[in-house]
Design a protein that fits this description.
Length: about 325
């Protein structure tokens, strides 16, 4: 299977906004793009965009008021502006089952200090804090996402457990060995220089702590016609990873396998997609006239039916590793 290498991604996307700009653009929209996977986080389709934060705010990315558009405006919205209007929470690949695996497999509890790398709007870390009582610091390269995550944490009564800061997961500036667990829910797919990010996670974890992630990958090659359609919708070539890519990224003598779970992402029926789009119109298009609502529904159906086809070829892996201290005894049967 063909892989889109990081070098190619950097050359293709970095010319538009630069590496840091790419990361910020990805972070701003990652939560809204979780709807592309019908709530399981189809992050392999994340586009690069030139939309500014003020543009996103115009259509109400988080809590801002939405300007009521006309049908022609909805039809003419750039792809990223349309998705910004959806305001969906960003679930990790695997959805709520993956959230449960983070909580159970990592043994989270009131005395666990957790770093959530690439938190976006913070759904994963808020849910873990709510269910287990763990103390979570979420970080995101977008200050707007960190602020939005703090606002949601406060509104849900979780500010004493989950807080969020603007930091780069590749160079956090946090103290070494200061967390029991470092985890991420699919954000690493959009980071340039992924090995640098993983090395930073290992620096931050206490000896015998855990690192964990959940990421999407293609278990079969999609038809080129489908990839072309997806690329046309999102405006860039579709980045594709294999399972081996993610396993190799964590191939370190300091890491021992702790938990592993593979599953197909799973497509939905056409009827489910149609019902979902209708529900999203009701959720988002409050106060819109009938023609604008119809235009929104038509665009959502075009996008989600295409992405739902792509889901047939996607799987995800949840994986966790035990972090050994330097000089630790090697083990053969782990």
């Amino acid at each position: 299977m063909a892989n889109l290498s990081l070098n190619v991604r950097e050359q293709t996307w970095g010319t538009r906004k630069g590496c840091d700009g790419l990361d910020r653009a990805c972070s701003r929209l990652r939560g809204d793009l979780s709807v592309l996977g019908l709530r399981v986080g189809i992050r392999a389709l994340m586009p690069v965009c030139d939309v500014e934060v003020t543009d996103i705010a115009r259509v109400g990315m988080e809590t801002g008021a939405m300007t009521v558009p006309s049908a022609d405006e909805v039809r003419g919205w750039p792809y990223v502006r349309l998705l910004a209007a959806m305001r969906e929470s960003n679930l990790p690949p695997g959805g709520l089952d993956t959230v449960r695996r983070f909580a159970v497999e990592l043994g989270l509890g009131p005395h666990t200090n957790v770093l959530h790398a690439g938190c976006n709007s913070g759904f994963l870390s808020r849910e873990l804090a709510r269910r287990t009582g763990c103390q979570v610091l979420g970080i995101d390269i977008s200050p707007d996402m960190a602020a939005a995550a703090n606002a949601r944490s406060e509104s849900e009564g979780l500010a004493h457990l989950a807080r969020y800061e603007h930091r780069d997961m590749r160079d956090t500036g946090l103290d070494a060995a200061s967390f029991d667990v470092v985890l991420s829910g699919g954000a690493l797919a959009f980071v340039i220089d992924q090995p640098r990010a993983v090395a930073e996670w290992l620096r931050l974890v206490k000896p015998h702590g855990l690192v964990a992630n959940s990421e999407l990958w293609y278990h079969a090659e999609p038809p080129q016609q489908l990839l072309d359609k997806v690329a046309e919708l999102i405006g860039v070539p579709v980045p594709r990873y294999t399972r081996d890519h993610w396993r190799e990224l964590y191939n370190s003598p300091r890491l021992q396998p702790w938990a592993l779970h593979d599953a197909e992402a799973g497509a939905r029926t056409v009827e489910e997609v149609e019902r979902y789009c209708a529900q999203m119109v009701d959720h988002v298009a409050v106060g819109w006239d009938d023609s604008a609502r119809e235009a929104l529904n038509e665009r959502l159906l075009d996008i989600f039916l295409t992405f739902n086809q792509n889901m047939e070829y996607l799987s995800y892996t949840f994986f966790a590793y035990r972090v050994l201290p330097a000089g630790a005894e090697p083990l053969l049967y782990v």
